[in-house]
Amino acid sequence: MIRVGPKVVFRRFHSLVNPRQVVRIPLNIRAPLQSIQACQNKEQASLDEAPEEGKGRKKTGKKTKKKTVQGDEIDQFGDRGAKPDVEFTYFYQTLKDIVDQYPEDQYVVLIQVGSFYELYFQQAEKHASMLGLTLSKRVLKNHEIPFAGFPDYKLEKYLQIAFGQGLKAVVCDQQTTAQNVIVRPVTRLVTPGTIIDEALRDYHRTNYLLAIQFPADPFKKDALGQKIGMCWVDVGLSQFHVLETNMNELMANITRINPSEILIANDLDIDSLITGKWFPELGELKKYYISRYSLPSVSTPLLDFANRFSENKRLVQSRLDKLSQKEAGAAKVLLHYLNECLPFYKLSFDLPKRSLPNTLMHIDPRAAQDLELTETIVGGFRTGALASIIDKTCTVQGSRLLNTWLLSPSTDVEEIRKRQKYIEVFLNNHIFVQELIQLLRKTTDLGRIVRRADNKRADMGEYLELGHTIMIIDEIHKMVKDCPDKKLVNLVLPLFEKFKEYPALMSLSQSIINTINPQTLRVKIDTNRNDLEVLRKYWFLRPTASPKLAELRDKYDQLELRFQALIQQLSAKFEKCGYQGGFNLIRDPRTTDFVIDVRSSRKSFKSLVDNMDLQLRERTKSSAKFWTMEWQTLGTEMLFVEQEILREEERIISLIRDTLLSLSTELRQVAPIIEFLDVCSSFYLLAWEKGLVKPTVDRSTKFEIENGRHLVVEEGLRGRVTGVENFTANSCALDSGRGWVITGPNMGGKSTFLRQNALIAILAQIGSYVPATKAHIGIIDKVFTRVGASDNIFRHQSSFMVEMNETAIILRDSTERSLAIVDELGRGTSAVEGITIAYASLSHLVKNKNCKVLFATHFGPEIHKLMKDDKELERRTDFYQTTLTRIHDGDLPIDEKLIFDHKLIPGISSHSHAFEIAQLAGFPSDALELARKTYVKATSGLYKD
Ligand SMILES: Nc1ncnc2c1ncn2[C@@H]1O[C@H](COP(=O)(O)OP(=O)(O)OP(=O)(O)O)[C@@H](O)[C@H]1O
């Protein structure tokens, strides 16, 4: 808006871009102005026609083709009490055809009409209230059509609500054909694993869609040993993974992939699968969003999907050819599903990569949950989980990599040592790392932007970010070369080998930076409206981008001057006529004429009409539109030049995009430099801030931790307002075939000790330093936990059944390289049976499986007694207890206070101090007294018989 003088307000014929529309909208889908307007007019006509149902409909022509809803569709309407022989206009019939294809108990169908997404018919009735929308009705002549809707920029919000209800969303975007006809095909089927909307996903984590190919008849007993195919991708990124696994390893693999959606064949008995009836571990599947999908009867051969990969077709086909039968099956299902969900989205994956589970630590679903690696057990929050404490990355891709590592620590000693080396040299070069972090902060996610550019979804801001990121990689490269510490140079410089080989990347970066106008960052043109809404200040490119653009911009500036002069001229004339109100120079969207839009009282209009040489085009109570040849000529000229500028910009941008896409492989190869350096600097910061030490990691079977700590509990204690509590460090020394039995009072710190050791092992194997004063860790292949008691009503399993299932898995799958932490096993059943089960499990793990075992129990004395008959087990087991101090804080015995010092010392605790804990928890004194008396009687043998 341009304000001239205190009262006169002029608006240019194109208004400012609405700041609320600062959303990323794909470039290069701008239809020519005339076609957009023609379409909008037609569309308006089609909508206007609706209320006139039966009356205003044209008799001939495709657009008004009549359809009668009969047969089974009549029944649907019959339910709602509508007339059976309902006829719709073409517009409503097309909507109905789409809506009827998708059962409303599984799908939300969102149809774009102008700048709204709308739900119609049964969709509106079923979902309006769930989405929090008002259910309205379009009243036609003979019937009413239920509908509800929301503005298009709120799409993400409503998709999220739909996902929350386990629904899939069918999105029909409004499109204009070459013949200027508006169509609304199903543009995508949105499910949690096929999200392409930026606002809906968090790039700090991967968002995998996983297809699982089970054996042909998986419920046969012998099918348990058969192969299972897995294929997973993140559609917003480019990796394409495959893996062949078996039933025992399946859940651990799913845990580390952590998919957002799992595809399982339609014909599989899903109930038997997710209730764990067939294989108990698969009960964990119910935590995931599962989609049922089977290949269409006529399916495309896998090799024909080679165009969905970015590499040379032959190379892709030879890789696809090498997939095992099961992997290929899963890949085919996944690619078909993506084709159906995202028919207009260009996928271009890297070459299929087989992930090698034997180089990764196996963390089963229970362990990942019990150890609260990425989210807390209660509430599923990130805050309070290990990831929230250790993640000090400053880029999204770094954070994503760290999360991936956390769920799949390495078992490759060389790889772990390489990561440790980075921390080591970084700790000797503080200033270097601080500068590195500052630079990394300014980078962007290259892989994501390449993918978006490929789909014409990247905006100017993203192109510019990409250009700057390449510059920053170059800057980091120079910084490394110039670093005085030769150790650092020798270690880090090889990371830039590929980058050095691609000088074209630097040219691309230069041309982006020299071309794009930085002021246009994040500003988009809403192509559904009108190109005229672009204000000059939002020209995307610098005038120097091409000689033609410079010439056009110059021309436009001249027109601008004439525009300003015309405003002054009109303003002076209006004042002369005694007109005090404001006016705008606009282009009438209806007639497309250039007019002066005047808003004022009738009285003021009169003076204008009487005194000025203006043609009155339209008049209402409070506004009038005048036409002058001068403004018509100037406006047309401006519009013409503006269109020319946009076309030239478009041409230059598409050249940049073509160059960028021709370098997509190179860009993907250099992208890991950023994420890797980011994670290493995050490890450095963690080690520095928390005083961590470098663990010795080798292929021995040792597990020796001196003064270990639990980072999350320690952080929690630091945050406490009352009293300063420090974390008590404890040591641990295990080896294959050895167990530690930990006893002690409730609240004594047994569970914390168990978990801290598992976490230290995981931290060490992701390459981080660890919270201890010294650590020696022989590679651990699997971490198992059996912690807490929870029943599983969904799987018809009691707490004890769940406990036994989990224990059975550990007893079956642990190896001499595994670490098992078992907390209070056997407490879910009667005391004697519980003790014997706990004892047998400990014995099996230590003696039969040669596993490293940390075993917390309240049955310490009993287990110790049972061991007297098994000298071998006794020799291999150590007993430790957590300690507690009583202090008197007053004169009366009641003033005694328990202090948990959480120190682990050799020995067996025979007392759980349950009464004291109950008292602390606020147990009623009567109940507590009764418990104490009963305890005395019970221990004196009163109830023996
Ligand atoms: N080493 C430690 N240093 C400081 N505080 C600790 C330590 N270990 C545990 N704690 C604190 O004590 C609380 C209880 O610890 P934890 O749950 O490990 O005890 P527990 O012996 O397993 O108890 P229970 O037998 O009742 O399950 C923790 O939440 C933590 O706040």
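^ adenosine-5'-triphosphate complex. The first strand starts at residue 2 and ends at 4. Residues 713, 717, 727-728, 744, 746-752, 882, 902 surround adenosine-5'-triphosphate (CB under 6 Å).
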